[in-house]
Amino acid sequence: MHQPPGSGRRTRARRRRRPVSARSAFAAGIVVGACVVLAGVALVSAFGDEQPDGPPATEGLAASAKPTGVFSRAFAGTWRGALATEDPGWEVQLALPEGEGTGSVQYYQHGRIECSGTVQFVKAAKAELRLDERTPNCSPNKSGIVRLTPRGKGLRHQWYANENDLAEQAPSFDGTLKKVG
Predict the structure, then answer these.
(1) What global pTM score does this model have?
(2) What does the DSSP assignment read for the chain?
(3) CATH class (in words) of the domain with range 56-179
């Protein structure tokens, strides 16, 4: 009677292991190493702390090529006013077109334009509008965070150098803007 393999009586004879060739060991090492490198790249891509291009002043905000929203009627228009600074005579003018997400900013000292740039919608609440400001020709402040809140018939303008100042409610510049257009 024929018995299928593996059933019935077992023998104690064991197979002899062949020695691993150097080529096989090298190939296995290459495969394992490649897997480790790919896993590392995937982790760095997923959880890396890569910084966005541009100035670090607004690193916590979404300072992208496209705004994340548009200026509402409450904040739209051209606004101008004096800023409280150590150096007197500074004014700011913001132009925020209704329904758009990007506007312009100009800084004046003693009535003369000193620098200009763009402001971009970041987020809004009922009583606050937050903007990412980029003023590449201003010195030393090339970018920052602008927080606008209603104040009487105007807007309170607060400029923050970075997210830490914003979190601490410590604006570098503060002023009240009136609608001029």
Answers:
(1) 0.62
(2) ----TTSSPPP---PPPPPPPHHHHHHHHHHHHHHHHHHHHHHHHHH--PPPSS-GGGTTS---SS-SS---TTT-EEEEEEEE-SSS-EEEEEEE-TT-SEEEEEEEETTEEEEEEEEEEEEEETTEEEEEEE-TTSSS--EEEEEEEEETTEEEEEEESSHHHHHTT--SEEEEEEE--
(3) mainly beta
- The percentage of the chain sitting over the pLDDT mark of 90, rounded to a whole number, equals 45
User: Residue 81 is encoded by which pair of tokens?
Assistant: 């006013």
> Residue ranges per domain, the chain?
20-50, 56-179
- Residues 130/156, Cβ–Cβ less than 8 Å: no
Span 33-61, pLDDT tens digits: 554 545 544 444 444 443 333 334 444 34
